[in-house]
Design goal:
Elements (H helix, E strand, L loop, with lengths): L3 E9 L2 H17 L3 E5 L13 E7 L2 H9 L1 H10 L3 E9 L7
Antiparallel strand pairs: 1-3, 1-4, 2-3
InterPro entries: Dimeric_a/b-barrel, DUF1330
Protein name: DUF1330 domain-containing protein
């Protein structure tokens, strides 16, 4: 089963509330086998809407990432991000020969 990338592009509008989201989201992601491979690192926007924060996590599968997102622990964390950020989130399955 191919691994999957969870890719978020975020503009934080309330840093305190978003910090509470991050406190809960990290453990929920790890609990579902997710591992951060890029988070708030240097970036260049070449096309599209610029967002100041970018996060990429790798999961064992697309299903594991989706299960994480729908989990009670992640949804509880996400409650803090709602209204505290503008976010785009996508999960994409890696091609068979990708290595991460």
């Amino acid at each position: 089963m191919p691994k999957a990338l969870w890719i978020a592009h975020v503009e934080v509008t309330d840093p305190d509330a978003y910090a509470r989201y991050a406190e809960g989201a990290g453990p929920a992601i790890a609990e579902h086998g997710g591992k951060f491979i890029a988070r708030a690192a240097r970036y260049v926007t070449l096309e599209g809407t610029d967002r100041a924060r970018h996060v990429v996590a790798v999961f064992p599968s697309l299903e594991a990432a989706e299960t994480c997102y729908r989990s009670p622990a992640y949804q509880a964390a996400l409650d803090h991000a709602r209204g505290a950020s503008v976010r785009d989130l996508v999960v994409v399955e890696l091609v068979d020969d990708a290595t991460l």
